[in-house]
Every structure is written in structure tokens, then in C-alpha cells.
Design goal:
The structure is a single chain. The longest helix has 24 residues. This protein is of the alpha/beta class and 230 residues long. The chain starts with a strand and ends with a helix. It is globular and about 50 Å long. 39% of the residues are buried. The structure holds fe (ii) ion (FE2). Fe (ii) ion binds next to loops.
Amino acid sequence: MKKLKIDFHTHTREDRKDFIHYTARELIDAAAARGYDALAITNHDMLLFTPELERYAAGKGVLLIPGIEITADDCHVVIINPRFSPDPKGYALTDLQRLKNEDSLIIAPHPFFHLFKSLKARLFPLLGHIDAVEFTCYHNSLLNLNKKGVLAAREYGKPLVGNSDSHKLAQFGMTYTLVESEKTIPAIIRAVKAGRCEVKTRPMSGWTMLRLIVDYLTFERLRRFIDRRA
Ligand SMILES: [Fe+2]
């Protein structure tokens, strides 16, 4: 069976929380150009999945998968194919128990990254509700904060998925997942849960990593400043 090239964690300009230059359509264009079979757009606390976008992606050979990155107790959690409408009041980590179901995939993104809203030690008591652990694109031979996530996934028998958490197109394509599955959403989710997936990644240069993180922190603060004054 063909292995599908997939990114389960990306952001686009429609995201209300982060400052991103490219739109969902532009990300889909990039996915098609870089040979992706499927893509989830997981903007913060909002679901960006419309029949129009789904058709646009399908026209380019990309299966668009619904996704969201929720904020729960100030931690980020990625939920693929969610079966709920986003709650404007936000979530608690204990809500994962009711949000979990067999149609969805719950991913712990960048679980031990200190600059991001990561679960860190809170991952462990939640592992019963987590379907997969993320290996994210920010790493090189000198700095790899994915290591603890890899160890946790191994120790507790959780699949690892490679994602870009893209905020810049420069990072999209550096890390992704190959999933042995038919090209349908239910089949892909079943395949990941069964562990039929592997991380593909290449290291990010220190300069690129620094530039992405500084950009992220600078624009994020600027955006919050502008929002407060609006
Ligand atoms: Fe994210």
C-alpha cells in the first residue's frame, strides 16, 4: 500500500492568534507542489474547513483533513477530525476525555518545547487520551527538544507523527509523516492509531531556527499589542 505524505499540524493567515503571511489556499498550493497527499490546517481554537477549501485541495490532489489546535489550561493540543464545534470559553485538559473518540486523532504537539504552550510533564497523566506524540521540525544536531517526546512515545507505546507546525512556508516540508493507508480520513486516522506511520525529517539550520523563533515572538507580541489597542 502507498505511503501517504501528510502534515497534521499547520497554521495559515486565517489563524486569529498568530501572525502568518500565507493563506490556506497558498498552503494547499505549497502542499501540492511539495508532493503532499493530505494536509490538516490546525489553526488556534478555530476550525478552518469548508467545502470550498476541501474542493480546492482535492483539485490539486491533496486530501484536506479537518483539524484544530485547541488551548486547554494554557497548553496546546492538536485534534484531527474533531467531532465538536470550538468552545469560545476554551478548554481544560480534563475535557480531552470527552473530546476523544474513535473518529478523531488527538496529538500532543511539540510536547517538551519550553517556548511553546506545551504539555511538558502534564503529558504523562494524559497519555490515556493522547493518540500520538509529535516530532516537530525545530531541531538540529545541537538542539533537539524532540528527544524527550520520542522517549515518552517509545516508553508508552504511542505513535510518533512528524509535523511542521508551519508558521512560515520555509519550514513546511522539513518534517512530515508517512502513513501507510488508503487516502481517506477514517483510514488515515486508523492507520496512525495502529502505528502504521513514520516520521520523515531533516534538520533545521541554527540560523533558520533562530529567525523563525524571533519572528514568531516579535510578530506575536506586536499582534497582541495591536489587539489590545483596537
Ligand atoms: Fe501549532
